[in-house]
Structure formats: structure tokens, C-alpha cells
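Researcher: Re-running this chain for the archive, since the previous output was lost when a drive failed. Same request as before.
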Amino acid sequence: MPPNHNMIVAGGTLIVDTVTAARPQAATNFPLPPADLESLGFRRQQIDRLMALIERHIAEGRYPGCQIALARHGKLALFKSFGNAVTEPKPRAAADDTLWLLYSNTKVVTAVALWVLAERGLFSFSDRIADHVPEFRKNAKGNITVLQTITHQAGFPSAVVGKDAWADHKRLRDVVCDFPLEWSPGSKVHYHGLTAHWTLGVLIEAVTGKDFRDVIRETVAEPLGLGRELYVGLPEGEFGRAADMHEPISIDPISIDKGPNGQGMRRDADANSTEWRKSGAPGGAGYGTARAMAALYQMMLLGGELNGTRIVGPRTLEYAIRNHTGDRVDEYMGMPMHRGLGPHIRGTTENIRGLGGFANPSVFGHGGVGTSYCWGDPESGVSFAYVTNNRIPDPWHGKRLDLVANFVHSAIV
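Model: Regenerated C-alpha cells:
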């Protein structure tokens, strides 16, 4: 096959897309072997509707590009790229090896590393952060537990980690320890966009003596066979594979439910910066392929093991993927989020962000702000990843996520 062609398995059919500057990667090297939709129990009609929706979004200028992956029972049913990964100065088509900014999907990757370290006895989720990072007790934070931090109950959602601390991890530790409290830990559930996971990155370094980015690579990405498809801290040598992130130029306040108002989108300079890509912000700067995220969730659905490699044990997963916050409303999200130790769970409340209204109560996953969602379904063994490269605000973002997820849920038989 020529070197500039992209091989995709879609419903058992080999689709060859011409792309620019792709790096082919043999499907046999990926931990999920390909299979067809029907043999894995999917209604093709619903998946066709999903792909038509994505193609329409791209034609309408909603986002330049997208990638999806669908897996079940340890096999890859669908992996497809759409549109462009890069728009300037010359458009470049999205390809199998395109790496997408995962935003807060990164939180789940970081969480898996924490599960591994907890199994190794390096800390317990009931420990106080200050048990391992003594100076964290500043500003009345001495009793905050690891569990409160990872479930967004720590009490410092608005703190800021500046660029000067992204690469200087001694400075990072100082900044995190200086975080001021905004409310009593445990008294609220309020999404901590980046602050909780910067704290958890500092914890990882305290208990291992190693850069948290290296720990995540060594405990999660490489053992799962995803070393070139999942990064927390993107090496400069891989920047050429990264999709550029975009943002709408403006949003029409009258018809905001329709998304961008036709004035187009622009590259997001901050999200595409060298500093951000290399930072590996453990709550928002991961990069990966959709099939890598589908594989990560397959590991969880298969009891902590993938392709013969065990990452964590089933009991650890049961503890981590459990509703630790009940039906308490997440004050940032405006609805209960049923927080686990990384992913959140669908539950039985009327609505839940991103997982789809049709999802059964045990479905768990996470999203990336304005762009993406990835999830797993323990009842059916299905995992799904949807990633795009234009950060669109709600309400349009939330509405399209529900539609996308429900096409997949309704395809499962």
C-alpha cells in the first residue's frame, strides 16, 4: 500500500483514505484486533446515521475534523477519521495516527496511573494529600484527602497554575501547595477543571520520585501497547501528528443552539502552543487517538486486563468506577455527575452530561471541554470514543454529544 494512504476498518470493510504525510501503523500492532460491526452485535443503520451526522457537521463548518472508534469484547469494530486535522497554512487530512487534544479525557488516563500506584501500596485514596506532600497543609488544606481531590470536592476549583510552573515541577509543587481554599473540603461537589489533577500530579511525583508524565507513560500507555497513541506530555518529535485545536470566531447569542454562527473558526493559539503540548497537564493536556481511548476503556470493561496485560485488578476497578458523590449536584455542571475516581457514572438521574440519555445506569466515561467524550458500558462490553478539534460551548455541544452517544447506544444489540 502506498505510504500516504490511511487504512481504516469500518464494519468489516477495508476503507482506504488518501491522506497527507500519514505515518502508517500496522493494525496487527494495535491491542484491539479488527472485527466487523455485525459480528460484534451492532446495528449498522444506526452507525451509518452517526457517520452521516459527523459528515454533516464538518460540511456545515462545525469542526474541521473528527475521529471515532467503537470496540466491544476486546475487538475494534470501527475506527474512522473525518475532515482535516490541520487547516493552516495548508489543510491536512485527519489520519489513523493523528493525535487529538483530549482535554479533560486526560483525567481518566491520569486516574488509571493512580489506580496502579494505589495497588502498589504507594498511597491510599483515603490518605490526606499532606501525608505525602507535607507543605500542602498550607491554607487549611491539611485534611483534604486524595478521594476528595479526584472527585472534585477539594475546595479549590478556581486556583491557577501559571505557565512558569508547567515545566518547572519544583515550582509546580510550590504553586499547588499555595492554593487557597474557597470552601470547606467535602462540603460541595464542584468541578475542578485543572487544579485537582495538578495536585494529583504532584502527589504522583511525591510517592514515586519521578516526573508524573513518565509515570503515566510507564504504568498506562506503554503496558497497554499504546505508547505511540496516547501521551500525557507530547514530545516535540510527535507535534507533526497533532491535530490543531480551534475555537469559534464568535457565537450568535440568538441562535447559540446552532453552534458557530457562520463566521467560522480560528486556531486556538494557547491550546496549540509548544508549552501546553509538552506540559502534560494531568487534567487536560493529553493527546491520543480515538482507538487508544476505546482501548483504554476496553481494559476497564475487561476487568483491568487488555491483550494479555493486566493493569489493575477487578476489585480496584469496582472501587474506582463507583458513584462516590451520590446524586449531589455538581455546582459547575448544574446536575449530578456521579463522580468516580476518574470517570463519572450515568446513574438514574434524568440527565447526565455526555454519556447519552439512552445509556444504562452503569455506563461510565468522561469528556473534553467543548470537543469530545469517551465512555464504556459494562452491561454490553462496548467502548466508544469521539474526538474533534473545535471547542464549541454549550448548549450546542451538549446537544450533539447526546445525539452522538445515543446513536451508539441504540446500535447495541
